[in-house]
């Protein structure tokens, strides 16, 4: 069986711990590889080498670092098919969706080609007599990226691009469920000219993460994953004095007003609810129609569309709509949450629990499910299901729908479908969620904006990618400089005072 190790100092190396994680092809249920889980000693060595490499990398001028990003982007495009194939095999998503995963990461790398502009400092000449004041952005040093299984290319690229182009070295700890893509990306970064040691990909589990969080050399931690782990990592990293931004889970609502185009709203719910088997932090998992007429019109449109969805393996051809979920445990958890919805009184309009695919009986598939008449006290409403399950909560008014979103503990994404500009504007202004779509179901901002949720969907400061990421991965140094020619000598000054 294939054994996946780490990427250290520009080479694939085997792990030494003797501990391994299992990597599956979720479509067949077969274990296809085992991934080495790093020891603290392996991390220590990788971090020490990264620290040495970073000292040289930060001296490479910003434009040359940006050129590495440019080449990196070209190589990602060159290898798009290979990356998508490897990603789908471990993750289960369809090939077009895997290409989208790579593409949305690539777009962040494209913005990092402009890193020199993002890294410019500020300057005030003659801030006082003979005094100039300027600030510069300097890299943090060695930072860590800890990433989830659901976007094996995009999220590592969100972390690597800004961190590396800002002059940091990075220890990337990808999800142990999907370890292959990150190492392939590291190989491409090396081919693009990234010096060895600047990007170390270390596979591992909690032991590796805790070593990173406690390691004195690590200056910043960028995490993406579930809310409990995000909160834990934020707390431990912050206690250890590290800069941390930790993005968590979600429960994203889409409000559908009675004046919305119902066909478009239904299509949006199908794409955002069931795409990638619902394993997206920006998936719409709660549909919130305003008025029973709106709800009935939606159910009438959704049911035939859901029944037509083709669930299958990534090798199943272009018409497969979504694939399996990531593990057997995830499959069982989703089905047990569907059971809880039935037990707690929701109306299961489409039941995906018994879905099975001939020839793939051991695959981790879950058929699409639709619940109507869900109420906020039910587990299917409260839990992030992270599966192909859409819950409908009926409301009587826009205000009731808005309050539902406002009261949700999560605040990653949300959307409204309406033809009324005033309502849309009010929603965008008043909802307490980080990313808002107006007639747009998955409002992932483009790479020159920034990505981040509110409430329990994000802990720490600043967003991912875009200008915020350059702020996160740099620290500001401000210099006050005085030159004396032509300046009256005032002798020693013992008091603070305003500058002339
Ligand atoms: P996860 O929290 O299980 O794992 C994420 C990372 O944390 C992995 O690298 C894993 O190895 C590590 N980890 C897991 N348990 C740990 C522990 N006890 N201690 C230390 N480290 C630990 O998340 P996942 O299942 O891989 O990903 C799905 C989750 O990620 C969903 O909740 C989803 O909403 C969220 N997500 C959020 C965003 C966002 O930007 N907000 C984006 C994508 C995914």
UniProtKB/TrEMBL annotation:
It holds the Pfam family Aldedh. Residues 19-479 form the Aldehyde dehydrogenase domain. Transmembrane segments: none annotated. The keyword Translocase does not apply. Keywords: NAD, Oxidoreductase. Its EC number is 1.2.1.27. NCBIfam families: MMSDH. PANTHER family: MALONATE-SEMIALDEHYDE DEHYDROGENASE. This is methylmalonate-semialdehyde dehydrogenase (CoA acylating). The lineage of its organism: Bacteria, Pseudomonadati, Pseudomonadota, Alphaproteobacteria, Rhodobacterales.
